[in-house]
Amino acid sequence: MGFITNSEYGEHLKKNLDVLVNNGKIGLSKFAPDDIQSIPNKYLEVVKGYKFYHFCINVPYAARVLNWEVIFDPEDYSELPDFEFNDNTFLPEPDIDYIAENVPSWDAWDLTNSQSLLNILNEFLVLYKKSQIDILEKQNKFVNWKEQYEELLTTLNLTADDIEVHIETKNEPDNSGNSELIIHVLSFLIVLPINLSPLPQYAQDEMGVISENPGDDFVQLSFLVKGRQTKISLSISPKAELLMGKLRLPVFRNETLAKYALTVQALIESEIKSIAHHIVECDTTRFSKINFIFEELEDYDCLVTIQLNGTFPHEAPKVKVHSLYCQVGSSCVRTVLCPYDPKTTAEENVAVLRVRLLRDVEMFKNHTH
Fold this sequence. Notes:
Oligomer: single chain
Structural class: alpha+beta
Distance between the termini: 81 Å
Shape: elongated
Number of strands: 17
Order of helices and strands: HEEEEEEHHHHEEEEEEHHEEEEEH
Largest sheet: 5 strands, antiparallel
Radius of gyration: 27 Å
Helix content: 25-40%
């Protein structure tokens, strides 16, 4: 390779940043466009003409955000940048040999490779995760959480790569406000081992270009534990979210994380099984039509078609029921006239449709020609 000017290295830096913001994968998560910000350098005076060399990067980890900084030499972008992790527990006394051994991109830094920055951040995150697990395993005050972490691994048959753990110790005022309490906040992000392949493929029409099931399938469960409070959230890939909607999580009743995770896993797997069993056909490009088996009567099933028109949600969808048994065959169809309110929620309209289907299908069961 011939001589590359600093200006050209600046273009390579931009390509590295583009890789990050365009859904660059970091640990179990992905960067979002607003996770990378250029900031005034707090150590050096800004050199005229070099505005973009100090970056604050919000690294998603264990359902939390790590505030890392990457600082390039504005006079030579090709040089390995400095890293500041803003965490006294992580690499408090950096050992260059240790870093070089565990961060391969350190010695092999090459800004002309557009993956370089993403690679080195992932390698540092592996080290960061190791430091968090070391705290969990070696400090007696976390022995209960160490046991719960190990139970998650064994009960859900996970590997260490499937769980991210974050531990934060902070001081907060007590109820009197006269003194401070030491509070430990623990976060766990868990990949639930759920097979989403039975669900129909997700496709999206973006100005005539069909994007099929963007990104990997995933189901992630996170726990934020602060004192006696536990906050739980669920994150699922677009295909699953569009077909299953927002799932209502069961109440957490001070059980172990593993037992709760198993309950959520069973709930989602049951939902997937039901969807895969009932849905016959689904328009996964525009999501304007679906055919499914209606099985809510004890002794009669039928096919239901729901078609959205171009004016939805202002006008009601068209609903039809098709007989699966009639000798007339596929021409045996009835239209279901269902009350519809565009001002109410989708859940409320679906509940009304279900009641109307129960009534109309009961009558349809006994129809004659």
